[in-house]
Amino acid sequence: MDYFVKFFSSLRLTVVCLGLALALVFAGTLAQVHLGLYEVQSRFFRSFFVYWTPSGTGLKIPVLPGGWLIGWVLLVNLLSAHIRRFRFSRRYIGILLIHTGLILLLAGQFMSEIFQVESQMRLEVGGSKNYAEDSRRNELAVIDVTRPDRDDVVGIPQADIEKGGDIRAPGLPFVVRVKKFMANSSPAGPMSGEGEKLKAADGIGQRLFFVAEPSVTRMDNEDKPAALVEIVTDKGSIGTWTVSTWLTKHPWVSILQEQVGGLLQVAVDAPQTFSTGGHTYQLALRPVRYYKPYTIKLLQFKHDIYVGTDIPKNFSSLIHLRDPGRGENRDVKIYMNSPLRYRGDSYYQASFEAGDQVSILQVVHNPASITPYVACSLIGLGLTVQFLIGIFGKKRARQPDQKTGPEPILATGLRSDP
Question: What pTM was estimated for this model as a whole?
């Protein structure tokens, strides 16, 4: 037991962890060229190990500790060293505050990695929404549109779609069979392109095909997956449909209009629909949605520039917040460094589209957002307290004892005669 306590409280362990962290950052920076920022964050920093897969095999060989493992070891190291060496005393109150702040900072960062959710809300002037979308995660949405007053949605994560095979989702009276999946794709007409094309027997997939493309790594771009799915009931197959993020409302809808003869816009305006068991369903491969108990409407978007130049000066969105559950019904202006914070969500002015008719708000939900501020405040307070204790402690040590008088001075040398 003593061995483990000494090991985890060792200063050498701290130095090793910091060295591994430097190596991890260096390796992640190099890998970003080929994998992209978001993939590197997932593989290197939001994991316990970094794995290497030899070409042509399914082996996963750990080659480096991941960011989560290094962070947890550092946290245990700090706690162990504090418990083993620290003795409570008024002289060390500042050190106690500093260590508490460091521990809270590490724990808060891990909580943010686990619970923080980032998404975007794309709003057209005059339009309103009660949901935000995750631009990096997709789902196959099976939407029951039978009732005119509401939609019942069952979301199947993209990770399940990638595995292929039969998917039996709770709430669906049929099986979704994934016959083909493309991690990234582009639309193609019947006579265009080479290679295997994704074709369906029903819906727009009969005329609009998709071909596989290499995964993208640039931050200003993203993969656009596509899949061929079959709906199977107890009575047999109903049909096959093509689903893709190309077929949902996105800024890139008009990119390949000419190449596919306008079929892309037709697909956007006509959702993939089928009926079974007296219900009507729609299929859509789309970004994951996070629904809110309130509605945000974009009243106005302003893109200000400096006079006589095209240099941006300010971006701002005037929105109307309506929340019947809490009686909120007010206008709010969101601009740079002035977000809207409501119900645990923070809305930032992130981007816009050409024509100044579309505003894109970054939505951040982080239950641990307050921890960095508390941690830094504790560290600052601890440094101040320890600094003052050091100053006044030295000053008090230099002052003579008032009760016993000045300290005696021992003198040697000449002796005066009486």
Answer: 0.76
